[in-house]
Every structure is written in C-alpha cells, then in structure tokens.
Amino acid sequence: MTKTMKILRPAVMCFLAMTVVCGIIYTAAVTGIAQLLFPNQANGSIITITLKDGTQKDYGSALIAQKFTGAQYMIGRPMGTTNLSPVSKEQKKLVQERIDWLHSLDPDNTADIPMDLVTKSGSGVDPNITPEAAEYQVARIARERGMNEDDVRAIISKYTTGRFLGIFGEPAVNVLKVNLALDGLL
C-alpha cells in the first residue's frame, strides 16, 4: 500500500460510511416514520375530489398556496418571497399596488384591508389567511356568487382551524378549501 493510499483510505471509508448512514439509513427512517405517523402530510396533503363521472382529480395541496384572482373567489396572500425591509420604499410600493388591486376588485368595500392580504408570508406559499382577511371578502364573494353572506361565512367557518392545542399559533382559513367548497367541489 502506498503512502497516498494510507492517507486517502480513512477519508474514503468515512465518506462511504456517512453516505450509508446519512443518505440511506437516516432518509429511510425519517420517510418511514413520516409515512407511519403523518401519511397525508408526507404525501403532500393533496386534495383529491371524485367528480360526478367517477374520475378523480387532484386540485392542489392544502399546505401550499394557489393563486386566485377572480372576484368570486377568496383571495389569499401575495405569493413569492421577498427580502425587502418592511419599511423600504420598494415594499411600500408593492403593498400599495396590492391595496389598489384589492380596491379595484371590490370598489364598494371601504373597510381596512387586513395586513395578510397585502404582505407576503415568510415562505411565500402560505395557504392560509386570517379569519379577519376572510371576513373582509365575504360581501364581495356573496355578491359575485349570488349567495347569502351567512352561507359564505358558514363555508369559511368550516375550513378555519383554531390554535394548535389551544395556545400555539393563530386561527387560519385555508383559501383553497374555501374556494373548492364555494365551487361545490368539497
């Protein structure tokens, strides 16, 4: 065995051992535990609906936002990420553009726009909005769909989750589920 081989052998053996432990054993263990304890989340929390003809269609993940822009739909948070300072001119411009867009979508609504409808979430793909942001949109959705506002609120309430264990987090409304329910698919 040459001197170079003596030097490289421990490095190669360590590399192979770590590849097996971290790349195979750890990954298999975490995947197996996730499938066992949280199968829906581990598989993407896909919302699958059986249509009238018996076929099934995937509509998206309950954990990842989808963009809705029609006045008949509940609008979620702006999508995408940003590293802008909350007090930067660029951020203020983006927020004002979103405010203007929401006012053009519902010109009769003079209520204050909840912050989560005009600012992006940390992940940029938050599927939820606050109950206040959902309530802000009730009259527009009811008007556009020819529904009673209380019926829209009932759908929103059905897809609102409370705090985890009653103390962690904030109540949240899943935008995709509400819109699917409004379309009569859930």
Automatic annotation (TrEMBL):
Protein name: Potassium-transporting ATPase KdpC subunit
GO molecular function, one term: ATP binding
Naturally occurring in which organism (per UniProt): Caproiciproducens galactitolivorans
Pfam families per UniProt: KdpC
Subcellular location(s) per record: Cell membrane
Known function: Part of the high-affinity ATP-driven potassium transport (or Kdp) system, which catalyzes the hydrolysis of ATP coupled with the electrogenic transport of potassium into the cytoplasm. This subunit acts as a catalytic chaperone that increases the ATP-binding affinity of the ATP-hydrolyzing subunit KdpB by the formation of a transient KdpB/KdpC/ATP ternary complex.
Subunit structure as annotated in this protein's UniProt entry: The system is composed of three essential subunits: KdpA, KdpB and KdpC.
Entry's transmembrane regions: 12-38
This protein's UniProt keywords: ATP-binding, Cell membrane, Ion transport, Membrane, Nucleotide-binding, Potassium, Potassium transport, Transmembrane, Transmembrane helix, Transport
GO cellular component: plasma membrane
